[in-house]
Amino acid sequence: MSFSPKAVWKEFSHSKIGMTGVAILGVLFFMSIVAFVAIPLDSFKTWNDPASWLLYPKSAQPAWINYFQSEKIPEHLILSPVVSTQQLGSVNVIDDSFAVNYQYDGFPSDFIYQYTAKYAGSPLLQISVTRPDGIVLPLVSTSLPFAENDVTYSSMVISTQNVIQKNILDKKSHYAFSLDGIPSEKIIFSRLDENAILKGQYVFHVHLYDVSAKPVLEQSRLVLGGQVYGMMGTDELRRDLSIGLLWGTPLALFIGITVSIGSVVIGLIYGVYAGYKGRATDEVMMRFNDVIYAMPALPLLIILAVTIGNSIFLIVGFLVIFGWVGIAKVSRSMAMQIKTLQYVEAAQLMGQKNSKIIFKHILPQLLPYAFASIAISVPGAITTEAGLSFLGLGDPTFPTWGQILHDASSYSAAARGMWWWILPPGIMIAITGLAFVFMGHAMDGIVNPKLRQR
Amino acid sequence: MGFKKFLVKRAITMFGVLMATLLLTIVLVGSNMDSISKQSAAQEIRQQVTSNKNLLSSFKTTEQLDSYINNQVKMRITALGLDQPWYSPQRIGLSMYKILTLDFGHAKFLTSDSGSSDVKDIILEKLPRTILLFTTATVLVSVLGIFLGAVAASKVNSTIDKITSGFAIISSSFPVWWIGVLMIFVFAFLYPIFPARATPDVSISDPGYLGSLLYHMALPLITLVIIGFGSWAYLVRNFLVGVLQEDFITAKRAAGIDEKRILYSHALKNAAPPIVTILALSLSGSLGGAIITEAVFDWPGMGRLYFEAISVLDLPVIIGATYVLTAFFLASVFVADVLYGYFDPRVRRQ
Question: ipTM value of the model?
């Protein structure tokens, strides 16, 4: 039962199922890298901070469902400006323009302009919109609070403000219907002959005029409210689920791989030592193993998480406590076989130290089995952690997939038909598990030739 | 080593596990438990004194009453041995003895449906429901799995064999509780066929209770069966494929015995020991998983009781439920061990 790594890899690479597992794992690793590179660490830390998700829509479906629908649901748009500056005589003008090609079959639910301006004096803020038919509607014209020296001022303009309503009513002669009681976004985006959506290119212009100094718009964003958003939609707390799902990937891989490597290393050394020593040592060690083996893991894991703590590192440790026992049993019986081989006996006769015999002559023989066990025990670790998180006992500071499902169930997502909140995390858990099951399956076939079909 | 000695050894190990689990639980929740028992002792005394009119009227001032009660509480605490720290050997020994004799004390918040706060009553009420759900599921899963596994084993590498193996691998990587959430979503809300909450909505005394219980059990039962039978079929198939390669089967084939008869009576009989063992083990495994499954479906059994007790930190219930769950878990592990040792003498000689 000797394996060279090369031969094992050669056989493994011929296994279709094993390579599928490797491919899936590659994609998951790629997603983890994307998560680390593309998403700033801040958004990860602010996952549970409602203030950082204010601009996002509540319970929005994923944007791609519009492809399957004849009626396009308005998408929630967070627009960034095209900036230009001008000098009109002594007046400095900043022009931020937001262009949107509006092709949805419904009005936006609202619009919010959020800005942070740095200025001295009292600049004038003007917002207007140019419709597809060329009509220009002035929306807001207001001066920012006076400041003697440079100040930074943050505020927002919301579509429900009275001043917008009033400014639009000045242009009511354009419209063939009465504008009474119609909210402003439904007027701006409406056709002239009836109150129905007018599709086409809308451009929102934000002008900031100042005479004394050059004002700067440090932050400038226009949000058009809608019911669909992004790749994965948002949850009840306005959080972008694609970020949570993406961040869940490295976390799940971390939990799964750390737990399985930890369990396999401990189990391997424990089992090999017991098997090699034999006699009373073996008896005592295996009785202890039996005790842990027969303990009901989940109830005890729950008690541990409640009483000791639920940080992600602690949970990894708890999972290792219950993970190593089975591996210890198998590697013990394997060590007992290897120990009777002649080269081990020869090493003993030559007077080599026990530790050297274990680490040099016995453990390397068990490595293929160890790799197979690592792969096979990953899914269990991931689902158990997800289960704990689902019960609300996981680490609340990390958006794991189980955590997302916990939130989904506490806001009764199933009852409200929010499939985009329930399906993706579970599918991700299963896919990650499958990748390792596939790999373990292929490894198992190499390590235990008996399992193979004739 | 004889079978009797094997039995005794296994029984001793199991008892050791039970004690170890109990000790671990007590150590983990001990310090919290301590303050609770002191509070409940004080409360009990106060109630006794205030309900005793004669005693109450013999006090002139409230200070007198308070000092009397405090004295009584102190005496009670000493009598109960609560004056010593919770980690003292006597205390731990006493609590373990109490739990061993099924004296779990009174729950802090939770009550049974009939209103009793005795932990034993609560557990006795929930336990049958968990057993009903999970035993039914295990029986269904094993029957379905054995049948499918036999079919797959008789036609190795056929389409049905590949589908069975593929389904087994895929179904085992989905968490049961997630499938449960999906099933609720599809069959309780999208197509309202089954109730979303598995708690029966009529009282126990109602004659329609059993029907209602079974109707509410349908969705969790279907979920458990769907998730479970794939891996069962896969295991049974692997055992049978091994047996079918043995010489005696080849001899039977040469003798011209019907292939179906070989499979169902000769091969299945020889694959029985591991199958029976797995039956016992999967029963115990499902008990551990019951916590999440019952929480998802709101099935009023031991698992949900455990979850509720954890969320309000009702320690007497937690300890009692852990004890009962562990005892059942160990009983089935023990039965599995014994069956295996009975069927396969090699195990005993190890």
Answer: 0.79
